[in-house]
Specification:
single chain; about 450 residues; alpha+beta; Alpha-Beta Plaits; four-stranded antiparallel sheet; three-stranded antiparallel sheet; about 15% strand; disordered N terminus; HTH_animal
Length: about 450
């Protein structure tokens, strides 16, 4: 495999691709890449279709939105319809596959680019309507900070064991009819729906169904949360005492539980029996008193639990390099964010080690020691209370090194809030013909609903 940019130019059959995790770039032979992609597309998950359905889907959606406009007088639907009809140059979604370097055989994770697709703006609107319905169960976890704070209050018994459960291929194995009915029931019971939208439960369900079925283009994230909450409700509705857990916490399809050591497998079998044709759970048990969950490593010490930051073995410690074309405030913000995450997750006696790791990491990413020390000190200091500044006009400008800082200093005199917008540099090191299978070169594919495949695949045509 070539190991330099000079060698890479001499071997055009090699192309670069950002890995699925670890923030590293992988050099992969194009033939190997396309063989892996074609292997995915040739499975029973996808069905080749004769032509690009984008125009038909676009016209159908416009008609549906227009009908619902007259029926509900909703003010957002005309904006979405006009955007699709007059502004958006709708295109067929494209599929590419970042290598999963942490998996044996380096498989690809199919990812669908839904930018400028017919349903993308509608799905964003529906997400705002559905989001308040999800995450209201006591088992739901918002982030690592909340999770770590809660588990530290648990007192373990000698017979308890730490386990995590994960749903295999959740996003493509959701039973759509069951999920849509569960969604409609939640909307019917939601007394605040009228405050968020003029749409009724029926309209929301129909539009979500269009995104997931008729259009078959867009992977709608909140649907997975609705299904998982429905599954969880069924799982704990039994009177079987062996199902009761000491602790059960869930972040979408990742579950952390504390159970009696003799009952962990029984609970796994119970979960897998609920929707055997759709969802399949896997289990991971603690090893040497340690178990990762989200970005935290849970450590068992006696009858108490401690936590520190968890990094996968493939994590590269590569972050925004100091030589990158970004404002200095962004550089400080990256350091500050890492420090604040460590403070939120780590126990006091484990924090110092993480702070040393952060300083070493950013030094290797080209950051001056003085900047690292200053940003770390500021982030670890107690936050100061400040009076919110009065509302002023917001002006967003493209950032240019040197000039951006000078303009920022004019903020007070101009009586406005100036924000820099970084010019997009994503995928500059990747070749477009490699990271995306272009429509001209690839057949149109329709993904069938409710058939298992790799996690993270969107419902798409490409």
């Amino acid at each position: 495999m070539p190991n330099s940019g000079h060698q890479r130019k001499k071997t055009p059959t090699w192309s670069s691709q950002k890995a699925d995790t670890g923030n590293v770039v992988v050099l992969l032979h194009k033939r190997t890449y396309f063989e892996k992609m074609n292997e995915l597309l040739e499975s029973d998950i996808y069905t080749p279709i004769a032509e690009d359905p984008t125009d038909v889907v676009r016209k159908t959606l416009i008609s549906l939105l227009q009908y619902f406009e007259h029926e509900t007088c909703d003010t957002e639907l005309p904006k979405i319809r006009n955007y699709i009809h007059h502004i958006c140059n709708s295109q067929c979604p494209e599929i590419y596959g970042p290598p999963k370097i942490h998996k044996p055989g380096v498989p690809l994770r199919p990812v669908v680019s839904s930018i400028k697709t017919v349903t993308s703006r509608l799905a964003s609107h529906l997400k705002k309507i559905i989001m308040p319905l999800a995450g209201n169960r006591t088992s739901s976890v918002k982030n690592s900070r909340e999770f770590c704070a809660e588990i530290k209050m648990i007192t373990l018994r000698p017979s308890d064991i730490l386990v995590s459960y994960d749903v295999k291929d959740l996003f493509t194995s959701i039973p759509m009819d069951i999920t849509l009915n569960a969604l409609e029931n939640l909307l019917d019971k939601d007394s605040t729906l009228s405050q968020r939208s003029s749409l009724k439960a029926f309209h929301v369900k129909k539009l979500v169904s269009f995104c997931m079925k008729e259009a078959n283009y867009f992977r709608f994230g909140e649907q997975s949360e609705v299904f998982m909450e429905h599954l969880e409700e069924i799982a704990f509705s039994t009177d079987n005492e062996s199902i009761v857990t000491v602790l059960f916490k869930r972040y979408v399809d990742d579950v952390f539980a504390i159970r009696k050591s003799a009952e962990d497998e029984a609970f796994l079998n119970h979960l897998n029996s609920l929707f055997p044709t759709c969802s399949s759970f896997t289990i991971e048990k603690e090893e040497d008193g340690r178990l990762p969950f989200l970005d935290a490593l849970i450590i068992r010490e006696g009858d108490r639990l401690k936590t520190t930051v968890y990094r996968k073995p493939t994590h590269s410690d590569r972050y925004l390099h100091f030589s990158a074309h970004h404002p200095r405030s962004v550089m400080r913000g990256v350091i500050s964010g890492m420090v604040q995450r460590a403070r939120a997750i780590c126990d006091e006696e484990l924090l110092a080690k993480q702070l040393r790791h952060i300083k070493t990491t950013f030094f290797s990413n080209g950051y001056p020691a003085a900047l690292i020390s200053s940003a770390t000190t500021h982030a670890t200091a107690r936050p100061e209370e400040h009076v919110p500044s009065p509302t002023v006009p917001l002006l967003i400008l493209p950032y240019y090194n040197g000039l951006g800082e000078k303009i920022k200093r004019m903020e007070h005199a101009a009586k406005c809030s100036l924000h820099d917008e970084d010019v997009s540099t994503k995928r500059l090191c990747q070749e477009p013909d490699f990271c995306l299978m272009r429509i001209k070169e690839a057949p149109y594919i329709r993904q069938d609903i409710n058939i298992n495949t790799d996690e993270g695949v969107g419902v798409t045509d490409t």
